[in-house]
Design brief:
The protein is α+β, with helices and mostly antiparallel strands. The protein has three helices and four strands; from the N terminus they run ββαββαα.
């Protein structure tokens, strides 16, 4: 799939049959640099591709996955959404062990995060470009205008 904003392609390094990548055409290394309206659009496309994978490949699940930054396993400096088709017992290990935090550790993390989330809920709207209107118009001479008006009057 391809449109003016995104390109969707099969992964060149798939971890399952039908592993798909959704990538913006504009270059953004990580998700934090993408405008809200573009990331929302990309996840809308990812949802539709996931539905297509369910239908086309008869999969029973998908993982919609983002590797955001080197520490998260991102190999290429271009943002992409991975859509990974899943079947029962497909031997893909995408699970991790939960880390147990003390109440004090959890409180410290909570306070640090709360300090930074003041912008959550503020959605960045796409700015529409103004339409330019050419104010110079040709005027018809009176003979031509009369001819057109007479022709229109003849139409039943």
């Amino acid at each position: 799939y391809e449109d003016s904003k995104v390109i969707v392609a099969l992964s060149p390094e798939p971890i399952s049959d039908g592993h798909v990548l959704v990538m913006p055409k504009k270059h953004y290394p990580i998700i934090e640099q993408i405008p809200d309206y573009d990331i929302a659009y990309m996840f809308d496309i990812a949802n539709k591709i996931s539905i297509s994978l369910f239908e086309a490949l008869q999969v029973q699940g998908t993982n919609i996955f983002v590797e955001n930054g080197i520490a998260a396993g991102q190999k290429y400096s271009h943002f992409m959404i991975h859509i990974i088709p899943r079947m029962p017992n497909d031997n893909l290990d995408l699970e991790w062990a939960s880390k147990q935090l003390t109440e004090e550790e959890m409180s410290i993390v909570e306070l640090k995060v709360k300090e930074q989330i003041s912008v959550v809920g503020n959605f960045e709207e796409e700015k529409k470009e103004a339409v330019k209107v050419d104010k110079e118009r040709e005027t018809m001479n009176s003979d031509e205008e009369n001819y057109l008006i007479k022709s229109l009057r003849k139409i039943p």
